[in-house]
Amino acid sequence: MELEKTGTSLKVRLIGEVNSDNAPGIVETLFRETEGITDLTFDLKDLEYISSAGLRMMLGLQKILKDHMTIENTNEEVMEIFSIAGFTNLLHFA
Questions:
Q1: In terms of residue numbers, what domain contains 62?
Q2: Residue 93 maps to a domain
Q3: How far apart are CA 94 and CA 20, in angstroms?
Q4: What is the CATH number of the domain that holds 39?
Q5: How far is CA 31 from CA 4, 36, 43, in A?
Q6: What is the pLDDT along the chain (94 residues), one digit of tens a residue?
Q7: Structural domains counted in the chain
Q8: Is residue 90, in this structure, part of any structural domain at all?
Q9: Does the residue 91 lie in any domain?
Q10: How many C-alpha atoms does 21 have within 13 Å on its Cβ side?
Q11: CA distances from 93 to 24, 51, 58, 76 (A)
């Protein structure tokens, strides 16, 4: 994971996989880093897989940030996971 913070904006680049092994650590870091953030963007260009733990993480952040969270550069494989889970209507994709 790479973070780029500019003022009240945070861009999070997820790399490789988000699964039950690393999702708790990502959540902990993001909850700490999102204090004062009004615009959160996830760049998923380099994300190869996201498990149910990663989906829960995304949904939890979306509930907190509401319309201030965007997901961009999602590849076909990861978008299919979002679609199968029914998250394409719950999350904001650029």
A1: 2-84
A2: no
A3: 26
A4: 3.30.750.24
A5: 15, 10, 17
A6: 999 999 999 999 999 999 999 999 998 998 888 888 899 999 999 999 999 999 999 998 888 888 899 999 999 999 999 999 999 999 999 9
A7: 1
A8: no
A9: no
A10: 3
A11: 23, 18, 12, 13
List Cα–Cα distances, 82 to 4, 51, 52, 89, in angstroms: 24, 10, 10, 9
- C-alpha to C-alpha distance for 3 and 52, rounded to whole angstroms: 22
What is the model's pLDDT at position 65?
Answer: 83
pTM: 0.92
Residue 41 in contact with residue 10, Cβ under 8 Å?
Answer: yes
Per-residue model confidence (pLDDT) at position 3:
97
Q: How many residues are given for the chain?
A: 94
**Predicted pLDDT of residue 47:** 98
In a domain, 61, yes or no: yes
